[in-house]
Design goal:
This protein has 111 residues and is α+β, with helices and mostly antiparallel strands. The protein is 45% helix and 23% strand.
């Protein structure tokens, strides 16, 4: 797991050295080269949600109240027994959402 973290830091550091527009273009090209990466039918979406809910439940069992994840190409909010799973959409300059904690509760907003 340490190696994966190191690879992520190297990759993130590399992108931070590039001009913003170039880095976004590279990321878009890599993302869209997977032809089916943005095509999601309801069955596939239900399976993704079930998997992420199970993951969130494992974190809730460890004492977490809120699990926030992102980059699943859609937004999703699930609440169970005052525990919350929030999946944030893609980030792009044109459209994105974000989670905001006001000291008591968390909510999702879009720009």
């Amino acid at each position: 797991s340490g190696l994966v973290g190191s690879e992520m830091c190297i990759r993130d550091s590399f992108y931070s050295l590039l001009p913003k527009k170039l880095a976004l273009n590279i990321a878009k090209k890599i993302s869209y080269e997977r032809k089916d990466s943005h095509i999601v039918n309801q069955e596939k979406l239900d399976n993704i949600h079930a998997e992420l809910i199970n993951y969130a439940k494992s974190k809730w069992n460890q004492g977490c109240d809120i699990v926030i994840m992102g980059h699943y190409h859609h937004s999703f909010n699930f609440i169970d027994n005052q525990k919350q799973l929030i999946i944030l959409d893609d980030c792009s300059e044109e459209d994105f959402n974000y989670a905001k904690y006001d000291g008591e509760s968390i909510s999702v907003h879009s720009l």
